[in-house]
Amino acid sequence: MNTLSGRIRLDFHSAEPLYLQIAGQIEQMVARGDLKVGEQLPTVRELATELRINFNTVARAYRLLDEARLISTQRGRGTYIWEEASPAMLEQIRNRRLEEMARHYLEETTRLGFTLPEVIRALQTRIEKTRSETSAPEGSRRGEE
Fold first, then answer.
1. Domains along the chain?
2. Cα distance between residue 55 and residue 96, in whole Å
3. How far apart are CA 26 and CA 34, in angstroms?
4. What is the pLDDT of residue 56?
């Protein structure tokens, strides 16, 4: 088993698409220095086989990382870490991931028949709950008694 596939943990129950989970974890490994410039990644098919997922999912993750210039795929040679992740590059990847998650969320809610006002209302309610939970004094948060 390739060492990269052993470090990628996929949550098949998450609302976050698998390709974003893969791209995000590779991004984090580069940012932490676990993957270095010039290090070779497994092929799309190898990683897909090892993770037991469709190769198109890995291809989409690699494409996202390639567009951000974090990796480079060279036909006949393989896929390599192209650059160290600069703060600007990580911000670009984070923003792209956030946009993809938002798009996925909106597609899913539309598929389930929710209207845009209902989705906005649900998000506003969740945001307010999150704010109140994170601003509660220490010891008074849920589960802390």
1. 3-135 (1.10.10.10)
2. 21
3. 9
4. 97
* pLDDT tens digits, one per residue of 36-87: 889 999 999 999 999 999 999 999 999 999 988 889 988 888 999 986 667 7
Give the span between the Cα atoms of 116 and 113, in whole angstroms. 10
Q: What is the pTM of this model?
A: 0.63
Orientation of helix 55-67 relative to helix 44-51, angle to 10°: 130
Torsion of CA 107, 109, 114, 115, to 10 degrees: -50
Residues in the chain: 145
pLDDT at 90: 72
Six-digit token string for 37: 């410039």
What does the alpha-carbon distance between residue 54 and residue 77 come to, in Å, rounded to a whole number?
22
CA-to-CA distance for 10 and 19, rounded, in angstroms?
Answer: 9
48 CB contacts (<8 Å, ≥6 apart)? 54, 55, 57, 58
